[in-house]
Write a structure and sequence with these properties.
Helix content is about 50%, strand content about 5%. The chain has helices at about 10-25, 30-45, 90-110, 115-135, 150, 175-195, 200-220, 225, 240-255, 260-270, 285-300, 305-320, 345-365, 380-395, 415-420, 435-440, 470-475, 480-495; strands spanning about 90, 140-145, 165-170, 370, 375. Belongs to the glycosyl hydrolase 9 (cellulase E) family.
């Protein structure tokens, strides 16, 4: 008689026990490993730079690109970052990247030691661009350079690109409260990064953040509605714009301590997602991040108005921990948090960062996360975050590091134009739009190592194909790396 198959419930119990046991095990990595990964995680941003590259550029296979961006519209939009493996500058993910890079430094910059200057430089590269985008024309925010539909019809180096560099903006007539709210958050968070090292720059960032936030709040609407197929399906604002308005106000409040922003949060929070439990944090949905950010105000001031944000943050944390009454996260058999088939590691890195940030807030205030009758100390949060970080760095069933250039085995076929095509130094003559596709479909490894890039990652069974044409698994993105910088800084200093 054949043995009966284990029930779905039994499988879940076994997976949860496996995950809990793995949290207790000794680490596969030491302080030196995390420090190496931290350096590479910041270095990656140099591979995403658009504009005139500085003399200290370390990824030397990249060269200048997009030097006339905005000129056809009589604005200077040179600089900033390409979001992923393409050559478009998308404002919403770039601003979110800037916010998360800044938050990484705000919370864990004191632990970055010799990497703090390169981390600040990574923030400044995009903050400079966002400043220009926000101040070039009154009552206007430039939110994108490049036609993504045309761009995606080509496979060419950013140094060669000849696709239309159209410029897109939001205005009172065509609002974009989501992208403007995130830009305000980015500028405010960046202002905190430079408060001591460059006070005048910091002031300019914060003042601009306030103006952009007023614009976002005064002319409400989603940029997906205003710009349509230019931003969708690439970076549609699926969650709407209320989360970005509350997020932007929260960052400006933290950066400025001005009471008017606290009043805004208190007056508008209930209609902007403050009462919702949410379980995902990404370039599109900021609700969980806002609650963790505002929970810090509760710990610092013990102001009861902020208590609900602490409660919602607890609910989010509890949803991730096997054994709690509100556990609802999904993990792969190897223990990786799994949210989506496309670019899943963006959710893993953002979750790891929030776990460590909230653990810091709890630890500094002798607090715990309350999960019904169960309480979680900061150590439990740190252990789960560490498990996710270690998985990404190679402690997984594939024994594959999903950070390019880190460890003995990492992906070689990265879905990234500049990395997959020969550099202009090795192939000075231009490679045309269609001529580049042979490199996309080639079985050879990428000729240029995009060091530090974290890719989309494995599927829900821990499988990874290392296939350049599978963008869901093999494409990097700035917003995957940004929160990982903070997580690695913490572990490098606390392992």
């Amino acid at each position: 008689m054949a043995a009966s198959k284990p029930s779905h419930f039994t499988v879940c119990i076994i997976m949860c026990m496996t995950l809990l046991l793995s949290l207790c095990c000794s680490s596969a990595f030491n302080t030196k490993d995390y420090a190496d990964a931290l350096e590479k995680s910041i270095l990656f941003f140099e591979g995403q730079r658009s504009g005139k590259l500085p003399s200290n550029q370390r990824l030397t296979w990249r060269s200048d690109s997009g030097l006339s961006d905005g000129s056809g519209y009589h604005v200077d939009l040179v600089g900033g970052y390409y979001d992923a493996g393409d050559n478009v500058k998308f404002g919403l993910p770039m601003a979110f990247t800037t916010t998360l890079l800044s938050w990484s430094i705000i919370e864990f910059g004191s632990l970055m030691e010799n990497q703090i200057e390169t981390a600040r430089s990574a923030v400044r590269w995009s903050a400079d661009y966002l400043l220009k985008a926000a101040t070039a024309t009154p009552n206007t925010l430039y939110v994108q350079v490049g036609d993504p539909n045309k761009d995606h019809q080509c496979w060419e180096r950013p140094e060669d690109m000849d696709t239309p560099r159209n410029v897109y903006k939001v205005s009172p007539q065509n609002p974009g409260s989501d992208v403007a709210g995130e830009t305000a958050a980015a500028l405010a968070a960046a202002s905190m990064v430079f408060k001591d090292s460059d006070p005048s720059y910091s002031t300019k960032l914060l003042q601009t953040a306030m103006k952009v936030f007023d614009f976002a709040d005064s002319y409400r609407g989603s940029y997906s509605d205003s710009l349509g197929s230019v931003v969708c399906p690439f970076y549609c604002s699926y969650s709407g714009y209320n989360d970005e308005l509350l997020w932007g106000a929260s960052w400006i409040h933290r950066a400025s301590q001005e009471k008017s922003y606290l009043a805004y949060i208190q007056s508008n929070g209930h209609t902007m997602g403050a009462d919702d439990d949410d379980y995902s944090f990404s370039w599109d949905d900021k609700r969980v991040g806002t609650k963790v950010l505002l929970a810090q105000s509760f710990f610092e001031s013990n102001t009861q108005e902020f208590q609900p944000y602490k409660a919602h943050s607890d609910n989010y944390i509890c949803s991730l921990i096997p054994g709690t009454s509100s556990f609802q996260a999904q993990y792969t058999p190897g223990g990786l948090l799994y949210k989506a088939s496309e670019s899943n590691l963006q959710y893993v890195t953002s979750t790891a960062f929030l776990l460590l940030t909230y653990a810091k807030y709890l630890g500094s205030n002798s607090g715990v996360a309350e999960c019904g009758s169960l309480t979680l100390t900061s150590d439990k949060l740190i252990a789960l975050a560490k498990k996710q970080v270690d998985y990404i760095l190679g402690d997984n069933p594939e024994k594959m590091s999903y950070m390019v250039g880190f460890g003995e085995k990492y992906p070689l076929h990265v879905h990234h134009r500049g990395s997959s095509l020969p550099s202009v130094h090795d192939h000075p003559s231009r490679i045309g739009c269609n001529d580049g596709f042979k490199y996309l479909y080639s079985s050879s490894p990428n000729p240029n190592v995009l060091a530090g890039a974290i890719l989309g990652g494995p599927d829900n069974k821990d499988n990874f194909a290392d296939n350049r044409n599978d963008y869901q698994q093999s494409e990097p993105a700035t917003y995957i790396n940004a929160p990982f910088v903070g997580a690695l800084a913490f572990l490098a200093a606390n392992t």
